[in-house]
Design a protein that fits this description.
Blueprint lengths: L3 H21 L8 H24 L1
Length: 57
C-alpha cells in the first residue's frame, strides 16, 4: 500500500495534468467531469490525512 502522503501527491499531479489539458482544449474546468471526479478524490485524501493527524494528538 502506498504512503497516504505520496498517494495524495500523485493524485494532485493527476489533477493538475487533467486541469492543464482542459485549459489547453478551452474546456471550462467546471464542465470537465473527469476533473471534478479527480478533485473530489484529492479532497477526500486530504480529509483522510487530516483526520489521521487529529486522531494522533
Amino acid at each position: 500500500m502506498l504512503d497516504p502522503l505520496k498517494l495524495l501527491e500523485e493524485e494532485r499531479r493527476n489533477l493538475n495534468v487533467i486541469g492543464q489539458r482542459s485549459l489547453e482544449q478551452s474546456i471550462p474546468l467546471f464542465n470537465n467531469e473527469q476533473l471534478q471526479v479527480q478533485s473530489r478524490l484529492v479532497d477526500e485524501l486530504l480529509m483522510q490525512l487530516y483526520r489521521e493527524k487529529r486522531s494522533r494528538k
